[in-house]
Amino acid sequence: MSLCFLLSCRAGILLAFVMAVVVSATPSAAASAAEPAAVRTLRHVVLFKFKDSSTPADVARIVEAFRGLPQRIPVIKGFEWGTNVSPEGKAEGFTHCFFVSFATEADRDAYLPHPAHKEFVGIVGPHVDKVCVVDYWTQP
Amino acid sequence: MSLCFLLSCRAGILLAFVMAVVVSATPSAAASAAEPAAVRTLRHVVLFKFKDSSTPADVARIVEAFRGLPQRIPVIKGFEWGTNVSPEGKAEGFTHCFFVSFATEADRDAYLPHPAHKEFVGIVGPHVDKVCVVDYWTQP
User: Coil, helix or strand for A8?
Assistant: First the structure.
């Protein structure tokens, strides 16, 4: 029975390891229910209205420059963007929204003066008619 | 050896099942890399600046009313909110951001005239100094 014992021991250890991986990879159910999420995220919402004199090529170049920041600034935890499609007519002229996420205030504070971000500000600056920036910690 | 065979068979089946659960719970790596995300989301970003005459209790009541909408309007796919903590001074007076997600334009179009949303608009309306609403389809 020693082979049998060894086999079941090995399978048992492997099973325990796999189950530990599953448990560690599964988001806590408690965190998504009544309890506030344990991990909050710092959102950085940037709205742009570009100048009438800015061409579609200028705007495309700005979008690509912003889209390139996550690869150049590792503290960026999340990034998405899009153009306004609201039917409500309350966009105040803003046409573009960039939605950047950080894990900590220190990360956001490192992003703002980062050379790559400063370079982006130099690219977008001449084309900005209006900008609005709101940061918030996620709450459910 | 038949007990041994049974033991290792049972462990093997359990292990296969657990590994299938792990694989099915792991997000596709392909979807988050160079390929555009297969599932795009319609974001609905709402910024508020409340009147100076609105009290903290008024604002708290508005926040709770908005927070109650996901339970009353099933087409809301995601909801979070927060108050501005940007150090940049470019928030244009906006203090509150509500970030609502929908799966489809039809869902957003069902949300806007929904009685529960209309009721919320009636609650917030008298307190709004400025509002800005931008909707966008998520792009990476």
Answer: helix
Whether the complex's predicted ipTM is more than 0.90 is answered with no
Residue tagged 């957003």 (tokens): B108
Q: pLDDT tens digits, residue range A66-107?
A: 999 999 999 999 999 999 999 999 999 999 999 999 999 999
Give A72's Cβ-side CA count (13 Å radius): 15
Q: Looking at the predicted structure, is the pLDDT value of residue A21 above 70?
A: no
Q: Give the chain B residue nearest A95 (alpha carbons).
A: B134
Compute CA B76 distance to the chain's CA centroid, rounded to the nearest angstrom.
8
Nearest in space to B93 (alpha carbons), one of B65, B130, B138, B121:
B130
- Using a CB-CB cut-off of 8 Å, the residues of chain A touching B60 are none
Q: How far apart are the C-alpha atoms of A94 and A61, rounded to whole Å?
A: 18
In chain A, which among 96-115 make CB contacts under 8 A with chain B?
Answer: 97, 99, 105, 109, 112
- Contact with chain A for residue B64, Cβ under 8 A: no
Residues of chain A positioned with their CB less than 8 A from the CB of B118: none
Beta-carbon contacts of A45 under 8 Å, excluding residues fewer than 6 positions away, are: A97, A98, A99, A132, A133, A134, A135, A136, B45, B97, B99
pTM over 0.90: no
Examine the pLDDT at B127 and tell me if it is beyond 50. yes
Of B8, B92, B109, the CB nearest to A11: B8
